[in-house]
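Note to self: keep these together.
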Amino acid sequence: MEILKIKNTVLQAGRPKVAVPLMSQQPQEIIAECERAALLPCDLIEWRADSYLSGIADLEEVLQEKDFYLDFLKILDDLEYIAADKPLIFTMRSVQQGGMLQLLQMQKAEIYQLVARSGLAGLIDVELPASAQTADDICEDGGISLREQIDEIHAFGGKVICSYHEFDRMLAPEEILGRIHIMQAAGADVFKIAAMAVTKEDAESLLKTTAFLHQHGIGPLVMMAMGEWGKTTRVAAGRYGSCITFAAGQEASAPGQVDVFTMLKWLNDYYGEES
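Structure:
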């Protein structure tokens, strides 16, 4: 399936929908950042919960406390209410893939289940481990496979954006195809690849691979090259088959990410203004 509708937002190839990440650590700051993001010209809001969780002292002990989950759901509920018709993407980005969180996969899986059960997030971001060769490989830290994580989220009615990030280099086309194949096999609803462009040719390679996937009916896709050379892909990838781009509201969450107003101008210049 190449089209996915969440609330009133349709994810499909063409002019990409704009997602703004929330990067604050403290609950009051997260809420305030979301209030500002809700007023921005964006289509989705991403809660980078790894930023919040990384600021909690003795996190593994705190995860054993019932009050943590009540507080966590209160933040999520507030964000969903403030975001209103803009779908919420829930993300816990690991240190290994450019985020701030160090948690065992089983611990993350429990939080994914909580979020899915709440019904408050339109999409839940689940990372493809770098070591995974199949959808059924047990994660490096043990306990659960990618397929099992996604099945558990689906069991509670959640939708999954499966993601993979490479910050050191551009992935070769066959590497991208291999990772997307694992995501498909695991049952993900949306497939995301972000890799670093060191040259102009890197960015062009990612766009060509995006077009190949789209031509073969694989999607919805979220494809982008990071870094200075990758900036053009954040705009143009929609024409090749991607459906979401990310732009900073208060703070960028990845190299090459521009602010939301610059992104809006670039999208209007490239695709024409929306009616």
